[in-house]
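Fold this: Metallophosphoesterase
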Amino acid sequence: MPPIRLVHVTDTHLSATHGYFAHNWAAFRDAMAESPPDFLVHGGDLTFNGPVAEGDIGFGAAELARLGLPWRAIAGNHDVGEAPPFSRLDQPVDAARLAAWHRHVGPSWWVQDLGEWRLVGLDTALMGSGLAEEAAQADFLAQALAGRDGRPVMVFIHMPPFDADAADTAFSTSVILPAPRAALLDACAAGGVKVIACGHLHVYRRLRHRGMEIVWAPPTAMVDVQRQMARRRRFPRPGYVEWVLEGKRATHRLVEPQRMFVIDMSGWTKRNGGTTTTLPPLGV
């Protein structure tokens, strides 16, 4: 079987009414047309503000379909909201927001066999939410791992499981809450997961944990230059991650298209005491 090319793109923040990142998405679309991968996974935050603007979800789904590629997507906090205990944007995930995602994009969790690999998509907004869907998703993951039939597994989630320390119990809106994090990592480590692919923090990064490679994909949308230079000493650029699956081996490379602009909204949000979702409309 020839190698399989898999693209992981995330944090695109698409909208017909707030098109701040449309140019970078167009550059990504052109890159996909020039060299189409075999499969694409969108890793969440497809939309600018999906929890309060269902039109953003429909727009984002249409843009994914426009690529003309086989694809799957998982939801991010800017798509369906956040687990109620840590809803920083006051947009707790609920039945209506999940239903909007299901109508336009697809299920909250899914499994996709690709070559000799099993891909699993999960919704991190449900982890720690206390909703019935949280337990249902955990049951689904257990079944997907138990039925993998020897396949190595790549799990796609929006929020990373942790930053530097998997045992860190500090509250954070940047990573999965400690209790569901521990359950997820235990299940993955015991269930043949070789890769956890995530996003959310708008930076490329990689580390190893318990035999698993954890890879953060960069955004195609905005970055925070000052923060990432201070924390990682690396100038952040937009882009995506391309995986190559050869048998049961997976390798990846960071792709930073020259035609993608470095867009930093942190100055505006700090001066205006808001978040990216409070930016004024800007048509595509």
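The chain is about 30% helix and 20% strand. The chain has one domain: 4-278.
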